[in-house]
From TrEMBL, chain A:
Name of the protein in question: Cobalamin-binding protein
Gene Ontology MF term list: cobalamin binding; metal ion binding; methionine synthase activity
Example GO biological process: tetrahydrofolate metabolic process
The keyword Metal-binding appears for this protein: yes
Keyword annotations from UniProtKB, A to Z: Cobalt, Metal-binding
Positions of the B12-binding domain: 94-220
InterPro entries membership: Cbl-bd_cap, Cobalamin-bd, Cobalamin-bd_sf, Met_Synthase/Corrinoid, Meth_synthase_dom
PANTHER family in the cross-refs: METHIONINE SYNTHASE
Pfam hit, one: B12-binding
A GO CC term assigned to this protein in UniProt: cytosol
Presence of the UniProt keyword Methyltransferase in the record: no
Length: 356, 528
């Protein structure tokens, strides 16, 4: 069906249209490819998905502004909508499934692609979109009784909310298939949180549904600590509750260490506070799933982003140091901060920089 | 009591034993007069030379009763067998075991059925569990919907299947009474020959034993359960019939809860449809987009509202409105519905915002609601590539306009709120959007969102302006999404008020070239 060269060409053409912000050219490109016989699933997954991935990469590398990234994503969404609009045949003979993003998750694009692929494969799909509050999701499940819920999340900081969504779906007897980068390499956090299955991409998700998912035993209702016994030490709860205080204290400590920071404008100060808050959020997530990888991966990624913007990793280490001062009585938290610091230290620094 | 010699011959037999074994007498071979479990036990005992201490006493049936045999060796090598009647204890144990098993099943049934509030799923589970635990196949019939019933069939070990069909329940004795729940009928056995074909699941050819039992609901009939076994020798005992009734009571309670929920959810959805915010779309060359997040995650509406009245002709004005009723939740939402309806009726007068506000104020003052409201009216038209806006604020936050170059301006309209005072004064201000410009209407849920990295700060207008400056040149849809997202992330998991935004945008003519944005932030937003 698919001609690799053609797919690559279409991808290149779509990328040019999206990067230029030209919605009409973008839609024209995929429609032409469809008319030339490129199959629709391949357009969604081998053309549009990689282009969207590149949009994120361009932003991370500081070649796209926030606005450009938003505009590019909006165009990709319209391209998907245009494809769906073009479709004629009836779908839904395979059965009914629900696709939703975890509460708080705004990256709806991957879930949207999964929903479209499943529709193409004959499923009746209820697509609930970005940041679905769990009470809405459960009411929807009671109403429609789907064969499965496909739960998408991109950012690991949503894992605690993903956990409560997973247990709630299973408590009403609907199996959960988790997907998205939030669930970690190989879907390790999906398993830790008790999801019935994890899929690396849309094709794997479709194959898993076609193979059939058993319904969870409805009597096996779980409490959070049944899945994650380490939560009993309360370190996660303490960190989440004292987030504001931790950020304030770290900010003060950093000003003591780098007097230059005292001259920061309110906006600069707020950016720094937001950065520290992110570190605390990922720290809390690592405490929740009891896995340093969540935290170290975030820190090394951040170090890379900082480098792209010519900020040295030194400021990151100072922030971790200040947090360690405050976490002395919490062994698990302290261990994670130490792991984080050594991950940042071993991160290769390609060029010296003089600015703080 | 029997005394037996090492060769297995009876030496003595007492009166009680003689009553039990009427044919037995002195000199008979044990093998001929007692069941093999006892004669074999005797042989084993003799081989062990009379040592009975290490093994459990043998037990078995004699005629209809159960006995335990205790052996003791006598001095001359004979063995004395004491037969103790154990029938009562055995029966009691068996009954206890069955009772425990059934209690377990009932507990499982309850927790399984109560886990879902979907009536179809509930019927599937009830049928499957009935087939699993009480019969070979089961059928759950819903109460009639018109003349149609939903029938859910299950054969043991197979999946449940569901059909909706017209049936005549009078064809099955006791079924129509069971379905009506009145007069009360016990679970009853019926003649398998009276079973119509539609009551048999696929692959289940002929029924031998059949029970029909009502599913009692919460004051309303929840349907009926039919249990089927293939052969007549596997009939239903009295205990099984009682168990079937207990099962039916639980299944009925769960099913009627599910039906009640479904009915209520349908009613809520119908009433809610009128209150839900409308979907905005590009109309007559102008982009419209809006976002809404109610204060409570389990509700879909609240005290913030917006509405959209597209013009019939491109030369006419489209009216959009965004506002906020004091209070939140359903009660506030009901008043927003009233305001939206009133405004809809006042649409022909929209050329004069002041008059619309006067009439709306009068309507609110004369209603029984004591709440007041603030709102912004925006009349939008497009001429020669430029979008003309007439904006009037009635006690509401003034709209912001973001120019394609990144400048953010406040539109200086102001006025008094609606529904509180007999007279409303308001100033209408006109502004024009060039291609790439966007006008944002928003509620105080955005600026008063409390949170941020330190946890206790307002999002505030300065942050909103900065966020808008970054949205320069974006489509209206993306502006709304970004503002809603930033405010939501600002509050995080914390408490917030209703948050509503509405954007009116003049589409840019050429491809997008982003102005005024330099990538500003090194760390990931929790979403971009």
């Amino acid at each position: 069906m698919t001609h690799p060269a053609t797919t690559a060409e279409v991808r290149e053409r779509l990328w040019e249209a999206v990067a230029a912000g030209d919605e009409y050219d973008a839609v024209r490109t995929v429609r032409a490819a469809l008319a030339d016989g490129t199959d629709e699933e391949s357009l969604l997954l081998d053309v549009i998905a990689p282009v969207q991935h590149k949009v994120g990469e361009e932003w991370a590398a500081d070649r796209f502004t926030v606005a450009q990234e938003h505009a590019a994503t909006a165009i990709n969404e319209r391209v998907v909508a245009a494809l769906a609009h073009h479709r004629h045949w009836d779908t839904g003979q395979r059965g009914r499934v629900t696709v939703a993003c975890v509460d708080g998750e705004w990256h709806a694009f991957p879930a949207r692609l999964v929903a479209e692929v499943l529709r193409l494969r004959g499923w009746r799909v209820d697509y609930l979109g970005a940041q679905t509050p769990t009470p809405h999701l459960i009411a929807h499940l009671h109403h429609t009784d789907p064969q499965a819920v496909l739960l998408s999340s991109s950012l690991p900081t949503h894992l605690p909310r993903a956990h409560s969504a997973i247990t709630a779906c299973q408590a009403v007897g609907v199996p959960v298939l988790a997907g998205g980068p939030a669930f970690g390499p190989g879907g390790r956090y999906a398993r830790a949180l008790g999801a019935d299955l994890w899929a690396a991409d849309a094709r794997e998700a479709a194959a898993a549904l076609e193979a059939g998912l058993a319904r969870p035993a409805p009597s096996a209702v779980r409490q959070v600590v049944d899945d994650l016994p380490h939560l009993a030490d309360q370190e996660y709860t303490m960190t989440v509750h004292s987030r504001g205080r931790l950020v304030k204290q770290t900010l003060t400590d950093l000003e003591d260490r780098f007097p230059a920071m005292r001259g920061y404008s309110d906006i600069q100060r707020e950016r720094t506070a937001e950065d520290i808050a992110h570190i605390v959020d990922f720290l809390a997530t690592a405490l929740y799933v009891d896995d340093a990888e969540v935290f170290t991966a975030f820190l090394t990624w951040t170090a890379g982003i900082l480098q792209a913007r010519r900020v040295p990793a030194r400021s990151l280490l100072a922030g971790l140091d200040a947090l360690m001062e405050q976490a002395r009585d919490f062994p698990r938290t302290l261990g994670l901060l130490q792991d984080g610091a050594s991950a940042v230290r071993s991160h290769p620094v390609p060029r010296p920089d003089t600015r703080v | 009591m029997l005394v037996v010699d090492p060769h297995g011959d009876l030496v003595r037999i007492n009166r009680a034993a003689r009553t039990l074994l009427p044919g037995a007498g002195h000199g008979d071979s044990l093998h001929d007069v007692v069941p093999s479990w006892l004669s074999d036990a005797h042989q084993r005992l003799v081989r062990r030379q009379g040592d009975a201490s290490s093994v459990a006493p043998p037990s078995g049936a004699i005629d209809e009763r159960l006995f335990e045999a205790h052996a003791s060796a006598s001095a001359d090598g004979d063995v004395v067998w004491w037969l103790v009647d154990d029938t009562g204890r055995h029966l009691a144990e068996q009954a206890l075991h069955t009772a425990q098993e059934r209690t377990d099943i009932l507990a499982q049934v309850s927790s399984a059925l109560l886990s879902t509030l979907n009536a179809d799923r509930c019927m599937e589970m009830a049928a499957a569990m009935a087939a699993e635990h009480m019969a070979e196949a089961a059928v759950v019939l819903s109460p009639p919907h018109g003349r149609r019933h939903t029938l859910t069939y299950a054969v043991r070990g197979g999946p449940a299947t569901r059909v909706n069909r017209q049936i005549d329940p009078r064809g099955v004795p006791g079924l129509s009474e069971a379905l009506q729940g009145f007069p009360p009928v016990p679970a009853r056995w019926i003649n398998p020959d009276d079973i119509p074909d539609w009551l048999l699941p696929d692959g289940f050819s002929a029924a031998g034993s059949v029970i029909v039992t009502p599913l009692p609901g919460h004051g309303v009939p929840a349907g009926a359960l039919v249990l089927l076994r293939s052969s007549t020798d596997k009939g239903f005992s009295e205990g099984e019939e009682i168990f079937a009734r207990l099962f039916a009571a639980r299944a009925g309670a769960a099913l009627s809860a599910a039906r009640l929920y479904t009915e209520q959810a349908a009613i809520t959805a119908t009433l809610m449809r009128e209150l839900l915010p409308p979907v905005l779309r590009r109309t007559h060359g102008v982009e419209y987009a809006a976002g809404y997040r109610p204060a409570k995650d389990n509700e879909r509406v609240g005290g913030d509202f917006y509405d959209f009245h597209p013009a019939a002709e491109p030369t006419q004005e489209t009216l959009v409105v965004l506002g906020d009723v004091a209070g939140k939740g359903l009660e506030a939402a009901v008043l927003t519905g009233k305001i939206r309806n009133t405004l809809h009726a006042l649409l022909p007068l929209a050329a004069d915002h002041q008059e619309v506000l006067d009439l709306l104020n009068g309507a609110l003052l004369s209603s029984h609601h004591t709440r007041f409201a603030t709102l912004v009216l925006a009349s939008v038209s497009r001429r020669a590539g430029r979008v003309r806006l007439r904006l009037t604020s009635a006690g509401h936050l003034p709209p912001l306009v973001v120019r394609s170059g990144g400048e953010v301006e406040q539109v200086p309209t102001h006025g008094t709120l609606i529904g509180a005072l007999p007279v409303v004064t308001a100033r209408t201000v006109e502004t024009t959007l060039a291609p790439g410009d966007t006008c944002l209407l928003y509620t105080d849920g955005i600026t008063e969102a409390r949170g941020g990295p330190l946890g206790d700060e307002f999002f505030g207008e300065p942050r909103l302006r900065r966020a808008l400056a970054e949205c320069a040149g974006l489509p209206a849809e993306a502006v709304v999404e970004r503002v809603q997202m930033l405010a939501s992330q600002w509050v995080g998991a914390g408490h917030h008020d209703d948050m509503a935004t509405l954007a009116v945008g003049a589409p840019r003519t050429g491809p997008l070239t982003v102005v005024g944005g330099t990538a500003r932030h090194p760390l990931p937003r929790s979403g971009r």
